[in-house]
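In response to the reviewer comment on reproducibility (Comment 2.3), we provide here a single inverse folding case reported in full, input and output, so that an independent group could reproduce the run without further information from us. The structure tokens appear first.
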């Protein structure tokens, strides 16, 4: 089966490569690759919605339809939960080693099919192919990481204060896990959760984002080929209209033990409220509003390099994207000029399948409309447009990479997540002022600081109310480190040593008497 697939992929790859080298975008993959599915995946079977309804998946760069998937509802989701619950009764009894071997195989398959998986991401999400490749390596990294983490889950034998009793703790899988994921990392946001759950012995019902179901379904194919048993990983696809009712059922079902969500803080709060009646464990990876602080002593080259990678990755649509540039007054003018230069030199707007593109479209027209509103608000409140400042003529979902100076805290670009290619720069005088500005938000996911002063690196990093702090570094995501936020940016951590897998484990205290 695998050999057959790889022959097919080779043919597809050759054709795709030819088109990309020629600089032409292509959507040939939708016809040729068997990793592109048009059915949902429940209990090891590719199925349609009970209603027969489907919806189209479109390429945000071109508006072209790249696939069609079932538009499922409550009855389909209930069925998937039942199947996952049944599968859990046997899967929880498998050994950690068995589960680890399957996840290692999934890692290998994902890496072997890296190019195809990356193209699926670019087709449905729009991000440039190079970034999509990076996402697959990051996403596959969670298969490998949790294959290793799963084998090191441990309980304890505790020193008992009673001569006739022994005290133990056991770690056990929590049960059926519901997952709801966003479109900005359609592969990695799934593997970061699902591989941890599977390594722990749990089963999964996952609802991917409406815009990016194809990557989720491709993961089903990979997991199936890796030998992950039927009913362990189930994907229910639905459009935006059905998402609230499907989400409500996932939160309220007594058969589901945990809800793991990555997305906006607003939706996270709804899911937490809906989970209260069943006292469901909630793992929440929510929105950010990252400060990017540059002190006068900073290495300017390093700061501009970090700013470019943090701000413009995925066209500004990552939860850890720098959202507020806070620059000390002595270096402010130079920083703005150097960032503008770097933007002119390094950013190229276009279709993510075209060679050389660094800035793809936003996920849809609504997202581009939102960015336009934020920029207009900033302009009306006194921001200067240094670069961009308008919609791009490449297509309706595109927005020009934009640099705004003279930004103040009353503007929408400071108060809310921009989720677009807009860098808003504000000036500060003292370290105290920078910390107060940086912490003056309900979000607390990621923050950045650039300074050449070693004591200041520690002092400010400790003072920032953020779950992740990049010190003289703009890129930090890796399976080895815990990912998650303070305040309204979430609950729990994904990845990291001991953190990510713990979300999917219960602790049992066992007291052995009559000794
Ligand atoms: P979103 O609107 O919250 O959507 C995320 C997911 O929730 C999608 O699958 C969406 O389905 C679903 N959803 C929406 N409303 C729902 C409801 N009432 N009940 C159940 N499910 C519902 O967020 P987004 O715009 O896709 O993603 C961007 C946000 O995610 C940003 O705030 C970003 O910071 C955050 N994010 C956080 C992390 C992290 O690790 N902390 C990582 C990535 C992204 P539909 O697609 O059908 O609407």
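Designed residues, in position order:
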């Amino acid at each position: 089966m695998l050999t057959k697939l790889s022959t097919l992929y080779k043919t597809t790859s050759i054709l795709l490569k030819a088109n990309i080298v020629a600089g032409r975008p292509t959507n040939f993959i939708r016809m040729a690759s068997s990793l592109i599915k048009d059915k949902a995946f429940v209990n090891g079977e590719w199925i349609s919605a009970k209603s027969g309804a489907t919806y189209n998946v479109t390429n945000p760069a071109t508006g072209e339809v790249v696939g069609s998937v079932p538009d499922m509802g409550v009855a389909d989701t209930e069925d998937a939960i039942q199947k996952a619950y049944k599968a859990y009764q046997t899967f929880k009894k498998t050994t950690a080693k068995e589960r680890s071997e399957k996840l290692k195989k999934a890692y290998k398959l994902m890496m072997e099919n890296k190019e195809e998986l990356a193209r699926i991401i670019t087709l449905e999400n729009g991000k440039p192919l190079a970034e999509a490749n990076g996402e697959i390596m990051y996403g596959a990294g969670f298969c490998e990481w949790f294959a290793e983490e799963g084998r090191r889950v441990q309980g304890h034998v505790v020193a008992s204060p009673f001569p006739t009793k022994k005290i133990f703790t056991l770690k056990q899988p929590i049960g059926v896990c519901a997952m709801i994921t966003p479109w900005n990392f359609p592969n990695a946001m799934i593997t970061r959760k699902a591989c941890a759950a599977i390594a722990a012995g749990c089963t999964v019902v996952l609802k991917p984002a409406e815009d990016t179901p194809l990557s989720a379904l491709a993961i089903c194919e990979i997991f199936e080929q890796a030998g992950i048993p039927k009913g362990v990983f189930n994907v229910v696809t639905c459009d935006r209209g059905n998402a609230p009712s499907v989400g409500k059922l996932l939160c309220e079902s007594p058969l589901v033990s945990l809800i793991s969500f990555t997305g906006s803080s607003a939706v996270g709060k709804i899911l937490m409220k809906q989970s209260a009646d069943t006292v469901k464990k909630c793992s929440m990876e929510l929105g950010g509003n990252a400060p990017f602080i540059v002190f006068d002593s900073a290495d300017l080259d390093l700061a501009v390099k970090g700013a470019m990678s943090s701000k413009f990755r995925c066209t500004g649509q990552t939860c850890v994207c720098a959202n507020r540039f806070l620059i000390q007054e002595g270096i402010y003018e130079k920083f703005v000029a150097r960032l503008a230069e770097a933007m002119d030199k390094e950013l190229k707007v276009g279709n993510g399948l075209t060679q050389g593109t660094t800035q793809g479209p936003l996920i849809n027209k609504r997202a581009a409309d939102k960015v336009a509103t934020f920029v207009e608000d900033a302009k009306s409140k006194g921001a200067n447009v240094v670069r961009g400042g308008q919609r791009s003529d490449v297509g309706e979902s595109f927005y020009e990479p934009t640099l705004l100076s003279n930004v103040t805290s009353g503007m929408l670009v400071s108060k809310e997540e921009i989720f677009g290619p807009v860098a808003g720069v504000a000036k500060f005088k003292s370290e105290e002022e920078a910390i107060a500005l940086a912490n003056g938000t309900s979000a607390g996911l990621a923050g950045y600081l650039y300074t050449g002063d070693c004591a200041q690196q520690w002092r400010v990093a400790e003072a920032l109310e953020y779950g992740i702090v990049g010190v003289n570094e703009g890129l930090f995501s890796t399976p080895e480190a815990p990912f998650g936020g303070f305040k309204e940016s979430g609950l729990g951590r994904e990845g990291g040593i001991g953190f990510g897998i713990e979300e999917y484990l219960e602790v049992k205290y066992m007291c052995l008497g009559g000794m």
